[in-house]
């Protein structure tokens, strides 16, 4: 039957008094609406877990920071909670220990994060180089410190830093040199060394994975044009891993703001150089140990806002450089 015959048959049935052929049914809005909700059903477990583990604690901390504890009389009665939206935040801003910890962490991030990322980048480039022998061994040995828990690594380095048993100072003793690892001006960089030792390998793996995504044809063409290994690394490999460098930089900045394990482990052997408010997290932990949950919540909210602002500005700057 030709295409023109179908309309003729339809007209014949209509003239004969028969019912016209039924048109194909179209999905109604009521039937189409459930289909739109089906993807949300697959996302439901994640949404529930995200709300329970992130949204709920953050909301509770933000709400708790709006109250202050008031004690009356001689303090024999239980303290009462008073709604004071700016009380805890005003106290945190004027708290010398907390503001000093913020400045200390800012200096830590400005110095330690670039040093660690440069080290991770150099390790990744060396392992990715075709002329490097034993690449698997160096890749594993560079990543191995990350496999050691941070507390265990800090305990090992506390022995390395000890003024009585430091093997580093014993090796330097013939030269008449002794490094004061726990001096007030040096202890921050002693902590930075532990963090760099623990996390450089992790960042190296991320950068190395990005290097593996570079097309081999591009690298081979550069070698055929006479480009040296340094020129290839500088002009091709490093620009290609720019996204990985930005990602590791943001993760490292956030991790710096959350610094707690390393200084907390070194605190008992630091001769007072590492105080209870050495980092913002330690300061909030001290307030929490003292029973002032609302003040600890305010410090945590301030830290979260500052970290979010820094991350946002960093992303804007890096994206602007990429678009330019």
Please give a handful of descriptors for the protein shown.
disordered N terminus; two-stranded antiparallel ribbon; 324 residues; 70% helix; globular; mainly alpha; 14 helices
Tell me about this structure:
The structure is a single chain. 70% of the residues lie in helices and 2% in strands. The chain is an all-alpha fold and 324 residues long. A two-stranded antiparallel ribbon has the order 1-2. α3 (87-93) crosses α14. The protein is globular. Residues 1-16 have low confidence and may be disordered.
SSE string, helices as H and strands as E: HHEEHHHHHHHHHHHH
Shape: globular
Structural class: mainly alpha
Radius of gyration: 31 Å
What is the helical fraction, as a range of percent? over 70%
Number of helices: 14
Major sheet size, sense and barrel closure: 2 strands, antiparallel
Low-confidence stretches: 1-16
Q: Tell me the number of strands.
A: 2
Mean pLDDT value = 85
Estimate the strand proportion: under 5%
């Amino acid at each position: 039957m030709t295409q023109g015959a179908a309309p003729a048959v339809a007209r014949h049935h209509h003239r004969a008094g028969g019912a016209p052929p039924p048109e194909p049914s179209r999905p109604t809005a009521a039937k189409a609406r459930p289909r739109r909700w089906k993807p949300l059903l697959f996302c439901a477990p994640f949404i529930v877990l995200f709300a329970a583990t992130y949204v709920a604690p953050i909301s509770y901390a933000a709400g708790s920071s709006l109250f202050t504890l008031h004690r009356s009389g001689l303090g024999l009665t239980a303290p009462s909670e008073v709604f004071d939206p700016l009380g805890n935040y005003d106290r945190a801003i004027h708290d010398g220990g907390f503001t000093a910890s913020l400045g200390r962490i800012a200096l830590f991030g400005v110095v330690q994060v670039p040093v660690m990322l440069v080290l991770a980048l150099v390790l990744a480039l060396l392992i990715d180089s075709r002329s490097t022998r034993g690449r698997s061994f160096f890749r594993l040995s560079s990543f191995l410190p990350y496999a050691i828990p941070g507390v265990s690594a800090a305990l090992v380095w506390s022995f390395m830093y000890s003024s009585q048993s430091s093997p580093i100072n014993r090796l330097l003793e013939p030269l008449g040199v002794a490094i004061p690892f726990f001096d007030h001006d040096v202890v921050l960089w002693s902590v930075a060394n532990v963090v760099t030792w623990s996390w450089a390998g992790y960042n190296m793996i991320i950068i190395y994975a990005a290097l593996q995504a570079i097309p081999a044809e591009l690298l081979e063409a550069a070698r055929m044009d006479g480009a040296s290994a340094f020129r290839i690394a500088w002009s091709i490999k490093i620009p290609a891993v720019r996204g990985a460098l930005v990602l590791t930089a943001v993760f490292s900045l956030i991790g710096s703001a959350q610094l707690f394990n390393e200084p907390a482990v070194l605190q008992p052997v630091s001769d007072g150089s590492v105080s209870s408010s050495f980092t913002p997290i330690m300061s909030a932990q001290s307030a929490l140990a003292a029973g002032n949950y609302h003040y600890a919540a305010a410090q945590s909210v301030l830290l979260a806002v500052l970290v979010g602002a820094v991350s946002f500005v960093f992303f804007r700057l890096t994206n602007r450089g990429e678009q330019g």
